[in-house]
TrEMBL record:
<keyword id="KW-0413">Isomerase</keyword>
<dbReference type="Pfam" id="PF01509">
    <property type="entry name" value="TruB_N"/>
</dbReference>
<dbReference type="InterPro" id="IPR014780">
    <property type="entry name" value="tRNA_psdUridine_synth_TruB"/>
</dbReference>
<comment type="function">
    <text>Responsible for synthesis of pseudouridine from uracil-55 in the psi GC loop of transfer RNAs.</text>
</comment>
<dbReference type="InterPro" id="IPR020103">
    <property type="entry name" value="PsdUridine_synth_cat_dom_sf"/>
</dbReference>
<dbReference type="Pfam" id="PF16198">
    <property type="entry name" value="TruB_C_2"/>
</dbReference>
<protein>
    <recommendedName>
        <fullName>tRNA pseudouridine synthase B</fullName>
        <ecNumber>5.4.99.25</ecNumber>
    </recommendedName>
</protein>
<feature type="active site" description="Nucleophile">
    <location>
        <position position="35"/>
    </location>
</feature>
<keyword id="KW-0819">tRNA processing</keyword>
<comment type="similarity">
    <text>Belongs to the pseudouridine synthase TruB family. Type 1 subfamily.</text>
</comment>
<dbReference type="InterPro" id="IPR032819">
    <property type="entry name" value="TruB_C"/>
</dbReference>
<feature type="domain" description="Pseudouridine synthase II N-terminal">
    <location>
        <begin position="26"/>
        <end position="171"/>
    </location>
</feature>
<dbReference type="GO" id="GO:0160148">
    <property type="term" value="F:tRNA pseudouridine(55) synthase activity"/>
</dbReference>
<dbReference type="InterPro" id="IPR002501">
    <property type="entry name" value="PsdUridine_synth_N"/>
</dbReference>
<feature type="domain" description="tRNA pseudouridylate synthase B C-terminal">
    <location>
        <begin position="172"/>
        <end position="227"/>
    </location>
</feature>
Length: 306
């Protein structure tokens, strides 16, 4: 299911509310945390769908963020201590911000924020940074598909940017680096996740701070079928009865025996989804003797979601 998480609420609070609604014995998890300071799309996985977590997290994510120039903070967002600020009025023009964009595209090295859940020598970076001193975490590779400058508020020194990226990317780091490159310093003043692959926040269930559980009827109506994941990947249907048993037993299938399922957009091409009677299988590609085979990685029996 999709939850529209508000600012100030932890992702774990949303998951806990779903757990309390469904009761004991039902597995619940989320596919990619969202900072408490951010809002928007949070994908909550229920029952057997929790086994699809990594495949959902592999999908590209679409964000809308506001970069505030002239103020640099310890958290790279608006909640941290001010490290530096420019008292004089600054003028942020579209040409300046757009000139920074090419540096962020494609595979690049990115330094995560000091205040983050990443571990260094077994300790959370945010714990060390808050109790001792700000940690400068090592850079790591991320993949950013696009950065679009959507709006400039010259008088406020702000730029609204749309970012499409993959897992592990920090939008806070993009804002910080934009500020460093401009010479003004900057932080991310707000962030909203719009979508992850075909999962869109417009289909989300609203969540409010302090909610202990969700309306059970609303929740049940909001659960997406587990085969919704097939919208995100190249998808195929089993046409031969013997192939169904082979796939269930972990055997690979030649691609030419499968029937392609038309979908408007495959958000991720690293794997494929194969469906048959009572089965959904996420497969990787294998090439051998000039032929393509699909090798099952995760098989789900579709009789029920739990």
């Amino acid at each position: 299911m999709i939850i529209d998480k508000p600012e100030g609420v932890r992702s774990t609070a949303c998951v806990s509310a779903v757990k309390r609604t469904l009761g004991r014995g039902v597995k619940v998890g989320h596919a990619g945390t969202l900072d408490s300071t951010a809002q928007g799309l949070l994908i909550v996985l229920v029952g057997k769908a929790t086994r699809l977590c990594r495949y959902v997290m592999d999908l590209p994510k679409n964000y809308l963020g506001i970069v505030k120039f002239g103020v640099k903070t310890s958290t790279d967002d608006g909640t941290g201590d001010i490290l530096s600020s420019i008292d004089d009025e600054i003028s942020i023009e579209r040409d300046l911000v757009e000139s920074l964009v090419p540096s962020f595209l494609g595979i690049r090295m990115q330094r995560p924020p000091s205040i983050s859940a990443l571990k260094v020598d077994g300790r959370r970076a945010h714990v060390v940074s808050r109790s001792e001193k700000l940690m400068e975490l090592p850079s790591r590779p991320v993949f950013i598909t696009s950065v679009n400058v959507q709006r400039i508020s010259t008088d406020r020194g702000e730029a609204a940017i749309g970012v499409v990226c993959h897992k592990g990317t920090y939008i806070r780091s993009i804002a910080r680096d934009m500020g460093d490159m401009s010479g003004y310093g900057a932080h991310l003043s707000s962030l909203r996740r719009i979508s992850t692959g075909p999962f869109d926040v417009s289909d989300g269930v609203p969540f409010s701070e302090g909610m202990d559980c969700l309306d059970k009827e609303v929740l049940s109506q909001s659960l997406l079928p587990v085969d919704f994941i097939s919208r995100a990947y190249r998808s195929y249907e089993i046409t031969r009865h013997e192939d169904l048993g082979a796939l269930k037993n972990g055997l690979s299938l030649p691609l030419y025996t499968l029937k392609p399922i038309k979908n408007h957009k495959a958000w991720c091409c690293s794997r494929a989804v194969v469906t048959g009677k009572g089965l959904l299988s996420v497969c990787r590609f294998r090439f051998e003797d000039d032929r393509c085979y699909l090798v099952p990685e995760t098989n789900l029996l579709m009789e029920s979601l739990s």
